[in-house]
Write a structure and sequence with these properties.
There is one protein chain. The protein is of the alpha+beta class. The protein folds into 3 domains: about 55 residues, no CATH class; about 90 residues, K homology (KH) domain (GMP Synthetase, Chain A, domain 3); about 60 residues, R3H-like domain (Ribosomal Protein S8, Chain: A, domain 1), CATH 3.30.1370. A hairpin with a 6-residue loop joins strand 8 and strand 9. Helix 2 crosses helix 4. It is elongated.
Length: about 230
């Protein structure tokens, strides 16, 4: 059930109050229901000091609210359709770029999830696409993101994985995080991990975020930035 929008305004005359209310509602007189609440101050000994005041209640009619809702819905629908067109175009651009770049024996799988593009590459002898600790994946992901956003007004994220590397790496890092946390708790000494990418550091931070005995922070400059795990103070 929709609630009508109402306001109460004051003026020296009813016309002045109504005009003021219409301006606030950005509506025409035919679009509102008008109710006079208080025509003027009650006369009293002090009435000579009290200026005449009229209070008026203006309520937008139901059909006006529905019209406003429909306008908003139409605008949202239009934006969604525009974004879908852009992301579908971006997918074609990404697929075309990869087909030119990669060998024919590499399988390219592209999916759209929540206006993000997920790319999975699979095949034989694809380790060169992974690189040392996923460096080549990260570099290619940056390039694909640029390709996807070349003609897009919305920011499109591209997430790339090769041969399930990221899923395996994430599991390895989560296991490492738990192992390091136990060591820190046992020895009561902080441990600095080896340098990692921002993506890998985020996995460590997220895994230990709920641990109430240790805390994590990053130190150093890229590409030598690393995570330190220490006891909570």
């Amino acid at each position: 059930m929709k609630m009508s929008r109402s306001i109460i305004v004051e003026g020296k005359t009813s016309n002045e109050a109504i005009e003021k209310g219409l301006r606030e509602l950005n509506a025409k007189k035919d679009d509102v229901e008008i109710k006079i609440l208080e025509e003027e101050n009650k006369r009293s000994f002090y009435s000579i000091l009290s200026p005449r005041v009229v209070k008026v209640e203006l309520t937008l009619k139901e059909n006006i609210n529905n019209k406003e809702d429909k306008n908003v819905q139409d605008k949202v629908k239009k934006n969604i359709n525009n974004n879908l067109e852009e992301i579908n175009y971006a997918v074609k651009e990404v697929e075309g770029f990869l087909k030119k770049l990669l060998d024919n024996n590499i399988e390219i799988k592209v999916e759209i999830k929540e206006f993000n593009i997920f790319v999975d590459l699979n095949g034989e002898n694809i380790n060169y696409l992974i690189g040392y600790r996923g460096e080549n994946i990260n570099a290619l992901q940056v390039i694909l993101t640029a390709v996807a956003n070349k003609n897009s007004s919305a920011k499109i994220r591209v997430m790339l994985d090769v041969g399930g590397y990221k899923e395996k790496r994430e599991k390895t890092l989560e296991d490492l995080a738990e192992k390091i946390a136990k060591t820190v708790i046992r020895t009561r000494k902080q441990i600095a991990l080896e340098p990692m990418t921002a993506y890998e550091r985020k996995i460590i931070h997220s895994k230990l975020q709920s641990n109430n005995k240790v805390e994590t922070f990053s130190k150093g400059e890229e590409p030598h930035r690393r995570i330190v795990v220490s006891l909570k103070k």
